[in-house]
Write a structure and sequence with these properties.
This protein has about 525 residues and is of the alpha+beta class. The chain contains 15 helices and 31 strands. The relative contact order is 0.11. The two termini are about 35 Å apart. Helix content is about 30%, strand content about 30%. It folds into three domains: about 230 residues, 3-Layer(aba) Sandwich (Rossmann fold); about 100 residues, 3-Layer(aba) Sandwich (Rossmann fold), CATH 3.40.50; about 130 residues, Alpha-Beta Plaits (2-Layer Sandwich), CATH 3.30.70. Strand 7 and strand 8 form a beta hairpin. An eight-stranded antiparallel β-sheet has the order 27-24-26-25-29-30-28-31. Strands 2-3-1-4-5-11-6 form a seven-stranded mixed β-sheet, with helices on both faces. The structure holds guanosine-5',3'-tetraphosphate. The site of guanosine-5',3'-tetraphosphate (G4P) has 18 residues, from helix 2.
């Protein structure tokens, strides 16, 4: 019973947004609600990595971004909430995609001034691939942004999801008066810089109550009545099943920096967001209530202390209980492993734990055994799926500047790509090595770390490829194609064949010329 209670207490989610929409600010305010941090600014300083000790961190510090995906745990209304942070910088988008495989729902932050932006679109595509339930928080209502109805329209069209407003703003910018809570039928009046516990809420059971005019003025009251009538007519009750299927997203309006409109969202989140969900493996679906432990690695973080080469693998518990010092099977390596110091994260501090439950994320010390997507179980042979590599967008050939360090280079490339820092492609039947990334910054990180951690000095030669496509089909056809297109055929780390297309035109031409071959943009085509 205790075990089931532990599962029912947990909600694991991530906040996603285009950079600068307010993800860090919202994260901090949510942690304040949960009492996990006392000081405003704690998350921010995490982002800038003040006082970082290693040189590697210098890269992050200089650019003011966090390469790390950290995990924050806080309690709210007797629930244990795991918030998985995602790097905001687009060059580390793959990290974010992988983190999304480890959560059960997301909160999407939209800047009311900028609306839907490039990163928002891409991240939502990944959520849609997995039907992840989404709650939308429209931020920065204290600024003159887009009109709410226009914004709703834009989000629905651009992100291909139906929205369902649960709060509604009264004006915006300097005239922002607050939000009307459509399901609680109460008014939350805006005062800048609220504390997490501040409440300035007034029950307005009847929207025609003159109290509304008193509180927000006759003009805004009239506008709100008009809006609410329209909203009631269109939306009605929230369909929570449709939310769970990722078809409908509840929407809240507020201002993260002013700690406004967040409580409404958090209260709904704890009410409707899913507890740990079942997950697919290559053999069967695994559900959290099962007694035997299983979990998978979705993120590997290099140790930032250059004197210690070990790494931290982030494991999401999917079923059963992970116990300290108990032996588990590493399925890919067919190897038994024990963990003497698994730890969880309470805001920024780490704590060694004796056990962890479905929905939890634990950090495991790793000396090079783990790859992204690795599965641990009590013995059952299965691998969690849905951990795709996406086609990179930038390609560069690795040039070894120091032939004496070839071995170190190979090892470094293997380990860094195991961590998921970038993708490595090796020429089919040859030795050329090509690194594929999402952003320029990743190449800098790789170059820097190869030198610092492995003593290998490299240069990169830019290549003008458009996409990497995993190819499948009948062996004879594939053999023919690879012979014909030899210069463009690579192998990914697992030996799967990949075609590097020079341009969209080339890719389309090859598709037409080779109808028996399938070209896939993600490596997850097998499932
Ligand atoms: P990110 O993690 O999504 O990149 O965004 P972040 O929270 O860092 O917020 C980006 C900027 O937007 C910050 O300003 C932040 O203070 C501001 N911001 C967040 N929420 C609101 C809001 O509700 N209203 C307004 N007006 N601004 C908001 P900055 O100048 O970049 O940083 P800082 O100097 O304020 O820390």
């Amino acid at each position: 019973m205790k075990y089931q209670n532990e599962i029912n207490r947990r909600k694991t989610f991530a906040i996603i947004s285009h950079p600068d929409a307010g993800k860090t600010t919202l994260t901090e305010k949510l942690l304040l609600f949960g009492g996990a941090i006392q000081v405003a600014g704690a998350v921010k300083s995490n982002k800038i990595k003040k006082g970082a000790t290693s040189d590697f961190m210098e890269i992050e510090r200089q650019r003011g971004i966090s390469v790390a995906t950290s995990v924050m745990t806080f309690e709210y209304k007797d629930l244990l909430i795991n918030l998985l942070d995602t790097p905001g910088h687009k060059d580390f988008a793959e990290d974010t995609y992988r983190t999304l495989t480890a959560v059960d729902s997301v909160i999407l932050v939209i800047d009311s001034v900028n609306g839907v932006e490039e990163q928002t679109r891409r991240l939502m595509e990944v959520c849609r691939m997995r039907d992840t339930p989404v709650i939308v928080f429209v931020n920065k209502m204290d600024r003159d942004g887009k009109f709410p109805f226009d914004l709703i329209d834009e989000i629905e069209k651009e992100l291909n999801i139906s929205l369902h407003p649960l709060t509604w703003p009264i004006n915006m910018g300097r005239e922002f008066k607050g939000v009307y809570n459509l399901y609680e039928k109460s008014l939350n009046l805006f005062t800048p810089s609220q504390k997490a516990t501040d409440e300035n809420s007034v029950a307005i059971n009847d929207i025609n109550d003159a109290l509304l005019d008193q509180k927000v003025g006759a003009k805004d009251a009239a506008q709100l009545r008009e809006d609410v009538e329209l909203l009631d007519g269109v939306y009605g009750e929230l369909d929570s099943e449709a939310y769970m299927k990722g078809e409908v997203a509840p929407v809240f309006f507020g201002s993260a920096v002013n700690n406004f409109g967040i409580r409404e969202m958090l209260d709904t989140f704890v009410r409707i967001a899913p507890n740990p969900l079942c997950r697919a493996t290559d053999v069967r679906e695994v559900c959290p209530g099962e007694p035997k432990f299983s979990g998978f690695i979705f993120k590997i973080h290099a140790n930032l202390d250059p004197r210690h080469r070990d790494r931290i693998a982030f494991l999401r518990v999917c079923s059963g209980r992970l116990e300290r010092n108990k032996s588990y099977k590493h399925i890919r390596l067919d190897k038994d492993m024990k963990f003497s110091n698994p730890y969880t994260f309470l805001a920024r501090s780490k704590e060694v734990v004796d056990d962890a439950y479905p929905g939890d994320v634990v950090g495991l010390f790793d000396t090079g055994n783990f790859k992204i997507g690795d599965t641990l179980t009590e013995g059952e042979k299965m691998m969690f799926t849905g951990m795709p590599s996406f086609s990179p967008e930038l390609f560069r050939e690795v040039v070894n500047k120091d032939p004496m360090k070839t071995k170190q280079l190979e090892k470094g490339l293997r380990q860094l790509t195991d961590e998921g820092v970038a993708q490595l492609f090796t020429q089919h039947g040859g030795n050329r090595k090509i690194i594929g990334c999402v952003g320029d910054l990743q190449f800098e990180v790789i170059q820097y770390r190869l030198l610092q951690e492995y003593g290998a000095s490299v240069d990169f030669v830019p290549l003008s490829f458009y996409k990497a496509c995993w190819i499948t089909g009948e062996k004879k056809k594939i053999d023919e194609f690879t012979r014909f297109k030899q210069a463009n055929i690579m192998e990914d780390k697992d030996g799967n064949l990949v075609y590097l297309a020079q341009s969209e035109w080339f890719l389309n031409t090859e598709r037409q010329n080779n109808p028996d071959i399938e070209f896939h943009f993600t490596s997850d085509y097998k499932h």
